Amino acid sequence: MRIDCHCHIFNHDCVPVSGVLASRFGPEIGQKALEFIQGIPREGLTPRWRDGFKALFQSLFRSMPAQAVWPDGAGVLSRLHHAGDFIAFLEIGTRKIPEIWERLNETSREIDIWVPLMMDMSYAYPGCQPLLSLGDQRKAMMRLTLEAGGRVMPFYAFDPRGGLEAVMRTKRAIETQGFVGVKLYPPLGFRPIGNEDKELDKALLELYGYCCKEEGNPVPIIAHCSWSGGVYSNQRVADIRDLGAYYRSMAHPKHWAKVLEIFPVLKVNLAHFGGLGEWTARANGNPPRENWADPIVALMRDYENVYTDLSFHSLPTSSLAEAYREVLLEKIRGLEHKVLLGSDWYMSRMHGPLQDYWQGFEGLFSELFDKMTGENAVAFLRSEATERFFPRFFASGGRLRPPPL
User: Fold this and answer.
1) What is the pLDDT of residue 76?
2) Residue 384 in domain
3) What Å distances lie between residue 301 and 84, 91, 164, 255, CA to CA?
């Protein structure tokens, strides 16, 4: 069995696109990019659109120093050379959710089970909401899960700013709506614990307690844990000038150390293993600008149910492949059973096709590939949710009770 433990099937309607672009590129470039994205022809990319967006893309990166490196480790020249991949990534997001699933399924038929992660981005960008509400996204994922016949095992998005009602919605999603775990994305504006607003901690603690209710069979959590790449809020904070660094730090593994002191049996995947930027620096033989991998490794050693994944790690298809293999194997020695593999598709499409991603990992880590995508993934996903609630959802045809509005 092969399982992709980290992927996405949402589209642009699920994302406040203008907020994300403004936070990454600034208001002016972000607005221009938004206009181009909104102009993507539904029938496919025309040469004129491609040329126009490529020109915008190149002007953006040429305004940066040639030696500059983005947080995910990609230099400006690398970005320029992969403009076509970035455009292909954007085009996928214009498709309807069922179309995205069909493309995913057709591209990698050797994958038996996909684990798509929802995102709740409704709190991250003031005055900017997704076109598709979280409730509508949930219903779309429920339909897709049923139609996929067990090949899709989704994680429900949780944001503590929804309060205890968000906890109740998450419980319903797990117990009656076909979701098998919880997705947390701290850089959107909250820490896993230790928030100044104690109401956020109250909701988070309630969630963790629920996930650990069956102590020997906890419901799994996947948490973004990368200082490089990803998205983050653009909510202004007094005395904070670098919002990117501020919000990315909310995902730091040190916060999970405090959570696990309270809930030592919590099952959590600290996704991205620190991020592509950190592993690019390691493979280059340079001390990483940030070091999140070591704290993650420490938590994996100290707690039975802590895992990590290699999602959005495009290095197996790069010139740094062998160096990446060497430093990664050294770091995970003795913890190979706690390492998962996910494509982070379609986010990873900005670096290349999905097939290249899978073939790169299978070739570079031939001795671990089946383990990462097989027994490790099964161990992580095994819980009360997959063993009890998920089968019951299918037996009911998704109609255990009407989903709340």
Assistant:
1) 42
2) yes
3) 41, 41, 32, 16
In whole angstroms, give the CA distance from residue 372 to residue 291: 23
Which of these, 310, 334, 337, lies nearest to 324 by C-alpha position?
310
d(C-alpha 209, C-alpha 283), whole Å? 39
Residue 401 in domain: no
Specify the CATH number for the domain of residue 266.
3.20.20.140
Pair 83, 159 in one domain: no
pLDDT per residue as tens digits for the range 286-305: 888 789 999 999 999 999 99
Vertex 172, ends 171 and 178: CA angle to 5°? Answer: 105
What's the mean pLDDT in 269-280?
Answer: 95
CA dihedral of residues 175, 225, 217, 166 (deg, nearest 10): -30
Q: Strand pairing partners for 4?
A: 114
pLDDT tens-digit profile of 14-50?
988 888 877 766 666 667 777 767 776 665 556 665 6
Q: How confident is the model at residue 66 (pLDDT cuts 50, 70, 90)?
A: very low
User: Does residue 400 lie within any of the structural domains?
Assistant: no
Q: Are residues 22 and 150 in the same domain?
A: no
114 secondary structure, DSSP code: E
pLDDT at 266: 97
Are 108 and 164 within one domain?
yes
Q: Which of 91, 126, 155 represents a domain boundary (last residue)? A: 91
For 88, other C-beta atoms within 10 Å of its C-beta total: 17
Q: What is the 3-state composition of the chain as percent helix, strand, coil, each rounded to the nearest 5?
A: 50, 10, 40
- Record the pTM: 0.91
- If one counts the domains in the chain, the total is 2
Cα–Cα dist 95/12, whole Å = 8
If asked whether residues 183 and 227 sit together in one domain, one would say yes
- Report residue 69's pLDDT band, with 50, 70 and 90 as the boundaries: very low
Residue 189 lies in a domain: yes
Q: Of the candidates 396, 402, 404, which has an alpha carbon nearest to the alpha carbon of residue 146?
A: 396
- Domain around 22: 17-91
Using the 3D structure, point to which of 37, 56, 91 is the last residue of a domain.
91
Spatial CB neighbours of 198, under 8 Å, sequence gap ≥ 6: none
